[in-house]
Write the structure tokens for this entry.
Amino acid sequence: MTQKPQSSNPTTSTSTPRQFLTQLPSKDEVAKRLDNLLDIIHAVGTRLFGSLWMTLFESAQDAITLGLLVKIPSILSKWITGQEFSGLDDCWTGNNE
């Protein structure tokens, strides 16, 4: 007789979305993981770029921040007026119409 092997952990069956949401890590765990990841990125960046690493890292942070700051007024204008103003060209053509 051949027996089917039983799984050692019966809870590994397909989980429902509701079960998945209850298994999300806490904010502290996520923050700790991000800190660990940034420590690794800083170590590799310092090893590759030396003293220029912090300048490069801060420039990347500034670029991301400026990109977000440009998008916020566009999102607000689309929500309020229904028109999207993603650049100065759109503003000029929007006033001339």
Remarks:
- The mean pLDDT is 77.
- Residues 31 and 96 are 48 Å apart (CA to CA).
- The chain is about 70% helix and 0% strand.
- Helices lie at 17-22, 27-49, 53-81, 88-96.
